[in-house]
Specification:
Layout: H1 50-76, H2 81-95, H3 100-109, H4 114-127, H5 132-147, H6 151-160, H7 165-172, H8 177-192, H9 199-212, H10 217-229, H11 233-240, H12 244-255
């Protein structure tokens, strides 16, 4: 056995390390602390960069939480009611001019308190954003020219939109009886171009058309009689038999 070479394994009879060989071999299985192949992974707790990474991550998380909390607070904070009322009014006025009563109705429907609505509408009155008198004048002019409506029909429309009686009367005064009669005659002449049927049937239809537009019975009957008389000899003969005043009085009795 003396000639045998000594075993050099790792067992009980392993040879001791030689002098000067003090560097230990790395252990397998677990990476050395702070030495990882993943550059994005955090350093070990012993690494000098570890605390900085944890701190920055904490700050970022806190900032995100703070931002989310601010957004939640902003969403949950109720908006000023007057501001909401003003926005509603401006959106309504962007579509077409409105009376004060129309805007008040919309605000009430949207849940705006009466006190806030009064404050906002008073301010709009002061600066001229809403003006019932100007609204009434423009309404009378455009509806008479565009639709041929007479004073009675226009007065009814203004009342439905909340314009008070005095303001409506001032606007309607700009539409005199002469202008009203001329408009009635023009409407009848336009309809006669396409009218078909016996003169008496045409007469009744045209008078009814003018009545629906708000023309008094006398104005309507005279406008139709004159227009029919100018149409043809046969129509003129029929028109001669019409007693406009008597018919107007009869229509007035029916209306009352």
């Amino acid at each position: 056995m003396a000639g045998r070479r000594a075993r050099s394994g790792r067992g009980w009879d392993a040879s001791p390390p030689r002098a000067g060989d003090a560097t230990p071999r790395p252990r397998r299985g677990r990476r050395a602390a702070g030495n990882t192949s993943d550059p994005g992974a955090p350093a070990s707790v012993d690494s000098p960069d570890a605390s900085a990474w944890d701190t920055s991550r904490g700050r970022a998380g806190s900032a995100r939480r703070a931002g989310g909390s601010a957004r939640e607070d902003a969403a949950s904070t109720p908006r000023d009611e007057a501001e909401v009322a003003r926005e509603i009014c401006l959106r309504q006025l962007a579509v077409r001019p409105r009376t004060r009563a129309e805007l008040a109705t919309v605000l009430a429907r949207r849940g705006i308190s009466e006190e806030t609505a009064e404050q906002v509408l008073d301010r709009y009155d002061e600066v001229g954003i809403i003006d019932d008198a100007a609204f009434a004048r423009a309404w009378v002019s455009s509806r008479h020219a565009g639709r041929g409506l007479a004073r009675r029909a226009l007065a009814n429309e203004l009342r439905q939109r909340g314009v008070d009686g005095d303001t409506a009367s001032e606007a309607l005064d700009e539409l005199d009886e002469t202008t009203e009669a001329e408009t009635a005659r023009a409407l009848v002449e336009r309809k006669l171009r396409t009218a078909r049927g016996e003169p008496d049937a045409v007469f009744r239809r045209l008078v009814g058309m003018l009545a629906r537009k708000g023309y008094p019975a006398g104005v309507a009957i005279r406008a139709v009689k004159e227009a029919i008389a100018a149409q043809s000899a046969e129509a003129a003969e029929f028109a001669e038999q019409i007693d406009a005043d008597a018919l107007a009085d009869a229509e007035g009795e029916i209306d009352r």
